[in-house]
Amino acid sequence: MITMIENTRSSQEGKLSLDLLVGLSIFLMSFIIISQLISGMFGDVRSEISLSHESYKVAVILAEMTGKWSNGTKNGTDWENNWYRSNVYFVPGLAVRPGVLDYKKIVEFQNATDSDYESVKELLGLKTPDSNYDFHVSLETVNSTPYTRELILDISGLPLLDAGKDIPQIQLARFERIVQIYDYSNVSNPTIVAGKAVAKLVVVVW
Questions:
Q1: DSSP string, 66-102
Q2: Residue-range definition of the domain harbouring residue 53
Q3: Does residue 137 fall inside a structural domain?
Q4: Domain count of the chain?
Q5: From the centroid of its chain, how far is CA 205?
Q6: For residue 206, which of 121, 108, 145 has the smallest C-alpha distance?
Q7: What is the per-residue pLDDT for 127?
Q8: Considering the entire predicted model, what is its pTM?
Q9: Residue 161 placed within a domain
């Protein structure tokens, strides 16, 4: 009789109770769900930071650099006079000096983007083997807002700069910078401050 009791006890060793199994299952399911939610949240944050960085980078290139061009034997900063020639590589900066934009460079940036959007995107560093962003660049009045855009117009009434793809209703980054237009004799609606024509350079990346 004693031996029978000992066998019964030994047969119960190593078994998990039903309550423990249920509790462990609930814990694991909760852990998996929370992990997915947290990873999704941080994914959105990383995406937003990346977009903001790219929009800032494009704004700096356009507003602070004069731009460059080269065909392997010749080079210069007047890319606006050479970008359309064969075998020419160029960086499309718009500045005469930091924060002061050249009218002709603005016009030719619009023309270059309209002519070959993908190439300009690559030249601005928005298209690489690891990333591919779209962009829109515009010159707007200082009173312009994202919901009521007021574009800077030339004397013919056409937008001076409204280049790139149409802005979609998705997650994006928008960077604005106040700039001066150096020669504004062909601009119809600049804001004049202390005798200088100012506008907002707006860069949107998504």
A1: --EEE-SS-EES-GGGTTTSTT-EEE---EEETTEE-
A2: 34-205
A3: yes
A4: 1
A5: 3
A6: 121
A7: 93
A8: 0.76
A9: yes
CB atoms within 10 A of CB 136: 19
Cα distance between residue 141 and residue 112, in whole Å: 23
Burial 12-32 (b: 16+ CB within 10 A, else e): eeeeeeeeeeeeeeeeeeeee
Joined tokens for residue 53: 């960085």
Written as one letter, the residue type at 96 is: V
- The predicted pLDDT at position 114 comes to 97
Q: Is residue 102 part of a domain?
A: yes
Distance CA 96, CA 65 (A): 8
| pLDDT for 5 | 45
Residue 167, classified by CB atoms within 10 Å of its CB into exposed (0-12), middle (13-18) or buried (19+), is middle
In a domain, 24, yes or no: no
| Count of residues in the chain | 206
Q: What is the pLDDT of residue 49?
A: 84
| Contacts with 153 (C-beta within 8 Å, 6 or more apart), sequence order | 159, 160, 187, 188, 189
Burial class (CB in 10 A: 0-12, 13-18, 19+), 2: exposed
Residue ranges of the chain whose pLDDT lies below 50 = 1-5, 8, 41-46
